[in-house]
Amino acid sequence: MKNDKYGRFTSHSEPGPGDGGRTGSWRVVRPIIDLAKCIPVKSNKMACFTCWLYCPDNVITRTIPPTIDYEYCKGCEICAEECPADAITMVEEAEFVKKEK
Ligand code: SF4
Ligand code: SF4
Predict the structure, then answer these.
(1) Residues 6+ positions from 28 with CB-CB distance below 8 Å
(2) What is the pTM of this model?
(3) How far, in Å, is the centroid of ligand 1 from the Cα of 85?
(4) What is the pLDDT of residues 26-51, one digit of tens each?
(5) 1 domain residue, yes or no
(6) Measuring from atom 3 of ligand 1, which residue has the nearest CA?
């Protein structure tokens, strides 16, 4: 319990990157950002970052360009669902396994 920025007494916790633990190898799909469609990259402004806001694991950076920490990303697809520019595509992990072989 602590005071929030408005002075209200509140129960509030901040998520930290990877609070859900390392993902390991069980993620089925991986989010890939198309930078050509990404709003902050296109505008070179600190705009949008809806993906950063909604990611439950806090693994997307609020930077230009935004980046995703795949060590902790769970592949939940929320970022792809919420991106207003349709810039995030979920790609099967099997595609990356094939490339890495
Ligand atoms: S939500 Fe989409 S457009 Fe907005 S910063 Fe994320 S990837 Fe870029
Ligand atoms: S798929 Fe889920 S965990 Fe991974 S970056 Fe997107 S919102 Fe975050």
Answers:
(1) 75, 92, 93
(2) 0.83
(3) 7
(4) 899 999 999 999 999 999 999 999 99
(5) no
(6) 38
